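Inverse folding, one chain.
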């Protein structure tokens, strides 16, 4: 709820309602009435507008079937409403259509979507640290998200991945992220496409012993990403997080016990040599 409130209060979300309702507001203005009055078939014009809105509403419903957060649902509604407004404005007056399109482009370039800033147990990698960190301790299992800040799918998945890290992070199971939009050589190395039309963002890869074990979404023989929904339930089920968490905790216990015994042995050796804690 706090992250949802933060996203709604951001400049990116504040500009959506005016653009959403701009055509209906303009339709009630004196400027809009004469244009509709000059239409030779006013009833058919209104019917055409209704058909456009109904068609885009159907697209929104189909698009929202894959949405997993409230932000995604609202974002899809606003996005396709802007498309509908642009079409209707161009039908009303090409100058108004160009003006509306210019406003949308200006808002898109100046108002960036908010990034998730909530609590998380995630280590962020660079192109120089990711391989080193994965190879450092092969007993540690890593779940790494390959993301890009400009991807709306990655932005929607960020709070879900953060919540998973809070629930399942332990000494034997770690969570990491790397921005492949910034580090393009990492995307090439791990075969994650970053094209604007890609369906591989985000990509989750499970590493065990420094080696990739599985990834979602999967890539078929033609190199295309298999459709997959990035919900919390799907990640837990596909990556067997409950089982991985229990195994990681069991493997961590002997290491923790050994780490506790080592200082005690060192202290005993020090006392045998005539040194005390005060001397140290």
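Residues assigned per position:
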């Amino acid at each position: 709820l706090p992250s949802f409130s933060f996203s709604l209060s951001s400049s990116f979300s504040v500009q959506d309602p005016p653009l959403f309702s701009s055509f209906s507001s303009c339709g009630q203005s004196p400027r809009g009435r004469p244009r509709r009055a000059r239409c030779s078939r006013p009833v058919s014009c209104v019917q055409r507008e209704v058909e456009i809105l109904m068609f885009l509403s159907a697209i929104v419903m189909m698009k929202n079937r894959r949405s997993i957060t409230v932000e995604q649902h609202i974002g899809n509604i606003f996005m396709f409403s802007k498309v509908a407004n642009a079409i209707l404005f161009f039908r009303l007056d090409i100058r108004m259509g160009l003006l509306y399109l210019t406003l949308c482009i200006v808002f898109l370039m100046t108002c960036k979507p908010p990034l998730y800033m909530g609590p998380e147990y995630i280590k962020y990698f660079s192109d120089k640290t990711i391989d080193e960190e994965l190879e450092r301790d092969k007993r540690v299992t890593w779940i790494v998200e390959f993301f890009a800040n400009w991807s709306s799918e990655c932005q929607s998945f960020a709070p879900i991945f953060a919540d998973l890290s809070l629930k399942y992070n332990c000494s034997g199971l770690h969570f990491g992220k790397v921005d492949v939009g910034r580090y393009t050589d990492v995307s090439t190395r791990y075969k994650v496409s970053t094209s604007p039309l890609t369906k591989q963002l985000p990509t989750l890869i499970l590493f065990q012993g420094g080696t990739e074990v599985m990834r979602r979404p999967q890539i078929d023989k033609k190199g295309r990403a298999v459709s997959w929904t990035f919900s919390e339930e799907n990640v837990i089920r596909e990556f067997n997080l409950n089982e991985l968490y229990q195994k990681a905790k069991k493997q961590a216990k002997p290491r923790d016990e050994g780490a506790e015994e080592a200082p005690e042995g060192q202290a005993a050796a020090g006392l045998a040599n005539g040194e005390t804690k005060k001397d140290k």
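The chain has a mean pLDDT of 75. The longest strand covers residues 141-147.
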